[in-house]
Structures are given as structure tokens and as C-alpha cells.
Amino acid sequence: MLTQWEGSALRSFLIRPLTPDLIERAFPVVQSALPDLSLDRWRAYAERVAEDPSGGITVALDEQGYVAGLFAFQALPDLRNGLVLAVRDLIAVDLVSPEPVTAALLDAIDSTAARRGCTLVLMSAPTRDAPVPPLFAAHGYRRDPAQFCKGRPAGITALRRPAPVGRPAAATAGASPERPH
């Protein structure tokens, strides 16, 4: 049980792994961040992540037993840092303020990293230029601009890639640079 202060009120959250009985109960929280995601796709994702021994999904249950937030994680080997905890899909929902549940989830991330022997936590930022939110900075997070991404995020039909010197830019969807034979 993790407790967080919200103004003058003490909030408590039960932090636990996502279990099959919580998958559908967690869906409204997931859908609040990803409104186009179907229940079937969420269920398939949650079941697949739950089967991976290097990762999982952790949920925060509020005082009434409702899912108030969650995050997915995977412990990955890293040449420089040993094991790192890669965190995806951190979602926190609350009618008044998501800050207490977010703080509880950040504490749970720290506990998960320590329990799995991870020396570093990596988390995707919502946008490339997004500043580190004060709550995250208070938990020790900083911006790391040294990561690249390849692939097409869900919902994006074409990505622009920079043109090689002397060539016009092309969309990645079906385009490839000309190469001499």
C-alpha cells in the first residue's frame, strides 16, 4: 500500500500486478489515454505482456478498489548500465488530480527497478520536446535526448524522413531512395 498526500487529504493506493480479473477493469483507464484502442486489442496486449517473465503491468487501485493508474515495464539488458527498466504506457486518472496516483506509480516504478536489479529507468516522453514534469523531476527523472525511434506509431499513416543531402524528402510509406544497380 502506498500513500500519497493530496493537498490536506491522504490518499492510499494498492499497487499490484495486473491479473486477468483486472484486465477489463483497467480498460477505462487505458481508454482515457488511448480512446481509439479496442477492448480486444487491450486484452491481447495485457495478456501478452503478462506472459513475459522480463516484464509486466502494474496497477494502482484506489481506496474503493477502482483502477486509478497503471504502467507496463520490461527489464532489458544494457551494455553500459547492466539491466534497465523500460517503462511504457504510464497512465494515471483521477477526477480531482492525477498527481497522487502518478506519484504512487513513480514510487512503484522505483521499487520494481530495485527488485529487478535495474540501475536505470527509461520512460518515453509524450513528445520530443516535452519538458520533464515537476513531479517526475522530484522523483529524479531527467530528459535524455539520445534515443531514436524506428517504425510507424499507431495512428500515423506516413512519416517524413530527412532527405539525404541533395535529394528531396520522401514519406516512408512505400518510398525508398533510388540506388544505383
Considering the chains and any ligands shown, give keywords for the structure.
alpha+beta; globular; 181 residues; 8 strands
Describe the structure.
The structure is a single chain. The chain is α+β, with helices and mostly antiparallel strands and 181 residues long. 27% of the residues lie in helices and 30% in strands. It has helices spanning 20-33, 39-51, 99-115, 134-138, and strands spanning 2-6, 9-17, 55-61, 67-78, 82-92, 118-123, 160-161, 170-171. β5 (82-92), α3 and β6 (118-123) form a beta-alpha-beta unit. α1 (20-33) crosses α2 (39-51). The longest helix has 17 residues, at 99-115. It is globular.
Spell out the blueprint of helices and strands.
Elements: E1 2-6, E2 9-17, H1 20-33, H2 39-51, E3 55-61, E4 67-78, E5 82-92, H3 99-115, E6 118-123, H4 134-138, E7 160-161, E8 170-171
Parallel strand pairs: 5-6
Antiparallel strand pairs: 1-2, 2-3, 3-4, 4-5, 7-8
Q: Supply the number of helical segments.
A: 4
Terminal-residue CA separation: 64 Å
Question: What is the global morphology?
Answer: globular
Report helical residue fraction.
25-40%
Q: Gyration radius, to the nearest Å?
A: 19 Å
What's the gist of this structure?
The protein has 181 residues and is of the alpha+beta class. The protein contains 4 helices and 8 strands, in the order ββααβββαβαββ.
